[in-house]
Write a structure and sequence with these properties.
Two copies of one chain form a homodimer. By secondary structure, chain A is α/β, with parallel strands linked by helices. The first copy, chain A, has helices spanning 5-14, 22-34, 36-53, 70-73, 88-97, 124-133, 147-160, 184-192; strands at 55-56, 63-64, 81-85, 103-106, 138-141, 165-168. The first copy, chain A, has two domains: 2-53, Helicase, Ruva Protein, domain 3 (Orthogonal Bundle); 63-168, 3-Layer(aba) Sandwich (Dna Topoisomerase Vi A Subunit, Chain: A, domain 2), CATH 3.40.1360. The longest helix of chain A is centred in the N-terminal third of the chain and has 18 residues, at 36-53. The radius of gyration of chain A is 21 Å and the shape is globular.
């Protein structure tokens, strides 16, 4: 079936995307072929654009289309607050919430003895440099509440102790969360951090 | 955030794929940006190839890169058996099983009074023509075991009755299936069609 070669190749590449397997890649490609004028052409063009222009910010690790991302380039965001996140997707989540007005530092992962990821493999040395260079007054450790995330937070806190105010996101009941569905750890954290009404 | 425009556009287009929502589209795009040399470039190129070359077979509705698909063009597959399926994905599933040696006819959907899909909206008139022109001796109705699929099968059977042998796929317990997890309809169909050992 030589005439199917470009289609098979596309399916194979699509199946490498996170969240898609061989089956859903086939479905997606059939959908794309049906909507080739409306969707496949524009998608191919958009991918070519991103492939050419996307790069990581040399300062913070955010993705964008310039060497210094919009947030690092925006003087209004030099508030002295630096929010440390594991990944660009966490930065995007914070930005969608729209409440943080400072700058970010994307580590690019977490420390992991199992996977052999050391501080030098992440943007931790760069974080130390930025705390000095950008007159940072507060570092907010917004790492995931996983074992690796918390280990990494502890390591960074150790490194920066005494040089800057260190904070972390509050733990508690999520908005709209039902106690019955929450794990014991969250409930006990929420109880310990209870507030007067 | 103008520097994010190409990235946002790509996320918006990716979210239109079946099986991906805004959240998984963001994840997929971040993954693509990280692997832009290995994955994003080739994927963009593969999509451009498919966008340019993919077309539906004028004879059977299968997708390929020529006006007549490989199966219709293959003289060895002129066995007189014609397998009618709803969609190209069903044709691919049959081909993966690798047991059917005849040709296919892709309807492009099912009749549906609710959605206003009439026989002329599907490849049903074309099916009648093919039965004559290609000296078909058996039409296998391999439509999905849904209400719409079975309605369509009945309609086609009515149209072709007396002109050709009409068969449908056997219904029964799937290989590896556990009775406890099967619906009543499947169990009763399997019992009715029971075989001597």
């Amino acid at each position: 079936m030589n005439s199917l070669k470009p289609i098979d190749e596309l399916i194979e590449l699509m199946a490498k995307l996170p969240g898609l397997g061989p089956r859903s890649a086939r479905r997606a490609v059939l959908h794309l072929i049906r909507k080739r004028a409306l969707l496949l052409g524009p998608l191919s063009e958009a991918m070519a654009q991103v492939a050419t222009h996307a790069r990581e910010c040399l300062n913070c690790g955010n993705v964008g289309t310039s060497d210094i991302c919009d947030i690092c380039a925006d003087e209004k965001r030099a508030t002295g607050e630096l929010c440390v996140v594991e990944d660009v997707s966490d930065l995007w989540a914070m930005e969608r919430a729209g409440v943080f007005k400072g700058r970010y530092h994307v580590l690019g992962g977490t420390l992991s003895a199992l996977d052999g990821i050391r501080p030098e493999d992440l943007r931790i040395p760069r974080l130390r440099d930025r705390v000095e260079a950008e007159e940072i007054t507060e570092v907010i450790l917004a790492l995931n509440a996983t074992v690796d995330g918390q280990t990494t937070a502890h390591y960074i806190a150790d490194q920066l102790e005494g040089r800057v105010r260190l904070t972390s996101l509050a733990q508690g009941v999520p908005i709209g969360g039902e106690l019955d569905y929450l794990d014991d750890g969250t409930i006990s954290a929420a109880l310990r951090a209870r507030k007067d009404i």
